[in-house]
Design a protein that fits this description.
235 residues, alpha/beta, four-stranded parallel beta sheet, 55% helix
Length: 235
C-alpha cells in the first residue's frame, strides 16, 4: 500500500474507536517487525514534487487528520514501539499520549535526510525533550536507541522486546478500567500548553464541575465509603 492508503485506513480505524464507547484505551503498534519506517521514498516522497499546491495540501492533510485524531481523542492512546519508528513513523508515535519502546527499538527524525522537515514533532518534540534536543534530532536526522530515547524523555518506558506488548496491554487495561476523568485530564493537559496559569486554572475548575456530576465520581465516593475498590464505567 502507498502511505496515503495506509493513512486512510488508519484514520478510519481511529475515528471508529473514538466513537466506540466500549473502547476506553487504545494501543498503536507495528504489524510487522517495525512500528513504522515512514514513507517510501520512490512511492511517497518523489511524487511530492509533481503535485500542485491543492494536490499537495490534500495529500498531507491526510496525515494531519490522523495526528489530530489521536491527539484530540478523549481516550488514552499508547504507542507500543517495536523495531524502527522513523520519519512519519515517529510522528505517529509522538501523536500518542504515552510511548512504550522495546529495548531494541530505534527512533529518528529522518525528514532532514530528504531535505524536508518534521510535522507533528515541531509541536510535540520541544515540549517533550526541550528545544535544544529537539533541534539536535531534527537537524541531524540521527537515529537514537530506545535507551537514549528514554533518557531524554522521548519515550516514557523502555522494556525488553518480548515484554513490550504485555506492558502496553497491562497499562491499557489499567487505564481502560479508570474513570471518565482520564479523557478530561488528557484534554486539559493538551489545552494547557496554549494557556496561561490563570486560564488553565479556570479551565480546570470548569472541567472539575463536570466531573463532580459523573457516574464515576459518584461510584468513587460510594466505594470509598463502603471500603471497596470502585468499578468505573467511563461515564
Amino acid at each position: 500500500h502507498r502511505l496515503a492508503e495506509r493513512e486512510l485506513l488508519a484514520r478510519e480505524a481511529l475515528h471508529e474507536v473514538a466513537r466506540d464507547k466500549s473502547v476506553r484505551a487504545v494501543i498503536v503498534t507495528g504489524a510487522g517487525t517495525s512500528f513504522s519506517a515512514g514513507g517510501d521514498v520512490m512511492k511517497d516522497i518523489v511524487p511530492l514534487r509533481q503535485k500542485s499546491p491543492s494536490e499537495f495540501n490534500a495529500y498531507v492533510d491526510q496525515a494531519v487528520v490522523m495526528y489530530k485524531a489521536i491527539h484530540d481523542m478523549e481516550k488514552p492512546v499508547i504507542a507500543a514501539i517495536n523495531g524502527y519508528a522513523v520519519g512519519a513513523g515517529l510522528e505517529l508515535a509522538l501523536s500518542c499520549d504515552i510511548r512504550i519502546a522495546a529495548d531494541d527499538a530505534k527512533m529518528g527524525e529522518f525528514f532532514v535526510r530528504m531535505g524536508l522537515m518534521p510535522e507533528m514533532s515541531i509541536y510535540v518534540l520541544p515540549r517533550l525533550i526541550g528545544l535544544g534536543k529537539a533541534k539536535l534530532l531534527s537537524f541531524t536526522g540521527d537515529a537514537v536507541t530506545a535507551q537514549e530515547a528514554g533518557q531524554m524523555g522521548l519515550v516514557d518506558m523502555v522494556v525488553p522486546s518480548n515484554e513490550m506488548m504485555a506492558a502496553a496491554e497491562q497499562l491499557a487495561g489499567r487505564l481502560a478500567s479508570g474513570p471518565a476523568a482520564i479523557g478530561i485530564i488528557k484534554k486539559a493537559l493538551n489545552e494547557s500548553l496554549g494557556m496561561t496559569l490563570e486560564m488553565s486554572l479556570h479551565y480546570a475548575m470548569r472541567m472539575q464541575y463536570h466531573l463532580v456530576h459523573t457516574e464515576d465520581h459518584k461510584e468513587a465516593v460510594t466505594a470509598w465509603l463502603e471500603k471497596r475498590a470502585p468499578v468505573f464505567k467511563g461515564k
